[in-house]
Description:
Two copies of one chain form a homodimer.
Chain A (H helix, E strand, L loop, with lengths): L7 H15 L11 H7 L4 H13 L3 E4 L3 E4 L11 E6 L7 H14 L3 E6 L4 H13 L4 E4 L11 H9 L4 E4 L11 E4 L1 H14 L5 E6 L3 H16 L9 E4 L7 H11 L6 E4 L2 H13 L9 E3 L5 H5 L6 E3 L2 H17 L9 E4 L2 E3 L12
The first copy, chain A, binds a DNA duplex through helix 3.
Amino acid sequence: MSDSGKTKYFVLMEELKKDIISGEKKPGDRLPSENQLSQAFHISRHTVRKALSILEQEGYIEAEHGRGTFVSRKAGRKKGSGNIAVITTYLSDYIFPRLIQGIDRVLTENGYSIILKNTGNSRLKESRCLEEILEKDVDGLIIEPSKSEILCGHRGLYDKLDFYKIPYVFIQGYYTQMKSKPHIRLDDCMGGYLVTKYLIDLGHEHILGIFKADDSQGRDRHKGFVKALQEGGFSYDPDMVIWYHTEDRSVKPSQVLKIMLEEGAFVDGIVCYNDQIAFEVIKTIEKEGISVPEEISVTGYDNSFIAENGMVKLTTIAHPQERLGAMAAELLLEKINEIPDEESQVERVLKPKLVIRESCKDRRKNR
Amino acid sequence: MSDSGKTKYFVLMEELKKDIISGEKKPGDRLPSENQLSQAFHISRHTVRKALSILEQEGYIEAEHGRGTFVSRKAGRKKGSGNIAVITTYLSDYIFPRLIQGIDRVLTENGYSIILKNTGNSRLKESRCLEEILEKDVDGLIIEPSKSEILCGHRGLYDKLDFYKIPYVFIQGYYTQMKSKPHIRLDDCMGGYLVTKYLIDLGHEHILGIFKADDSQGRDRHKGFVKALQEGGFSYDPDMVIWYHTEDRSVKPSQVLKIMLEEGAFVDGIVCYNDQIAFEVIKTIEKEGISVPEEISVTGYDNSFIAENGMVKLTTIAHPQERLGAMAAELLLEKINEIPDEESQVERVLKPKLVIRESCKDRRKNR
DNA sequence: AATTATTTGTGCGTATGTATC
DNA sequence: AGATACATACGCACAAATAAT
Lengths: 367, 367
């Protein structure tokens, strides 16, 4: 034991570990064979194996039967639990099942499992979920932020994720203060533009917008709505927009609309935040004895089951739900396997498409 | 290698692990010395050490230089991952979102997270999922068996779950060979009875049944179907039943029905395995120029979204999806917290309810 | 206090099996 | 088919820690 009293296998192990950490041996490189090492270090092959087994256990190297021993591609990193957390606002409703389906498909193909959490769109629950995630060891996180338009009160939790080097990607919304973080979303501005433009092209002149005020999607869809109106030569009238919050969603839009209609407001088209709202809106309108689309056209958003199979087939924006989930999973996998130097693109935007059904009527005089 | 092709160290390791998990060796107990083991198992000390090193690495034992090797004090009561695996056939469609919602609600309330897996109703994937679950440490398992009516080819995996004392409960279906295992299900026999009885009471006399052949639900619903017919004084006619398998589901029922109708078979009511099939059936019937329910009544099963919001509002069986999930989670929690002596009830059956909508017509002459 | 037996830890040499190229 | 490389397995020797005599 010439080397400072340490054991032989320990010396060899440290030597190899040093080479790997320093970068002298790069991920994927082949180590000398066991016999070569045993000769070079003047120790028995058995002792070499002991050193290698420790390194393998710690995840620095990977031995392949009949081929050789290689520096692990994810050298230095923990071996990983194989679990990835997925936090969404809701589980069972609307687009989420398909979204989760897409995430699951990609992750399963790559040997991961998903840990599912949902926040009910509550900031408090989102905090709890994140804290739980930090306690368990997950290899990554896909999260749909709750009420993404409201100031982020728990930025610290995301900082912790960064600190522990747990990669995460946002889906659907994103916190505006964290725009540089990886996220995948629909181009909601374009979506809002498309439906509004469609109504204008069909000759509508009194278009009402109903938007959600507390997430980035609502803000973006409204932005597109305004853009289309102004391009069409209409001046923007704030009275022709109903804003609501998550907590209001089942009552406010319908109630306000009802009052507007009863007060005799003239409306020939309504752009709705999503299909659910559109459905509520149609119910309300028809209760007032007004018919859709003959008197008022209505557009939805998301192309959910309800749009295709409801009483009135909704003209809406196609939401490639499963694709969105799959892309999020793919981006996360890239982040997980990424070497710190290179950085993949952090934002991926899906272009929405208009799906035309039966909820809008052509109001042009001359055709 | 007399022992089933496994390596010697592996055999010894499993043997010792079994003793520790079963409680034969208690935490703090001393294992036989390496030399004793090598003599007892007729293997070299080197091989014994290999086995022990794995157990030490996994945290089952702790070696103390000069004293001996001891069962780890924290071997038995690993703190628990707080994760519970949920394996279903599908994720995004039909009743599953709500079911998972129910499971999630109860488990989240109790501080657990769910790891989601889906099998696509494939036995192979079910095996893979179970193997993965065995590798990760989960505190329990809720599983919807795939094709529960077909002989269980991987019983061994469930035995392993028993061995590692991972509690599990079946939902929806259950393997008939494992009836004594905890499971939660609808009383599908009663459900099948209810819809059929309803049609008979409305004066239907030529009732066709469409059932799935490869799960226990299909078999049970058919059983109720037969019971109602015979109680109503009709003899059972096998030609008035269409059986299909999971792989057939999108083509066979409609095709066979189409042929039957075109050949002039007289049918005034159809009991369908579920709402999806009922939906397909209605499409097929109406393509043939026959109207529902005026000429043929159709019943569904599950009371899914489609039943409430489709073209024809389906008379169906209410499936308390979220409740079912919640009950499964509650039963699992009982199993997890259960002291091995006392055993809670293993089977819980939910009574189904008939939901009457517009897909059946009263055919009685005198009212 | 020293000795001895026991037990784990380190290390060497050899042989055979099996996967890869 | 043969060379190479990792995987399993046996036997031996000695060191270091521990416990009992």
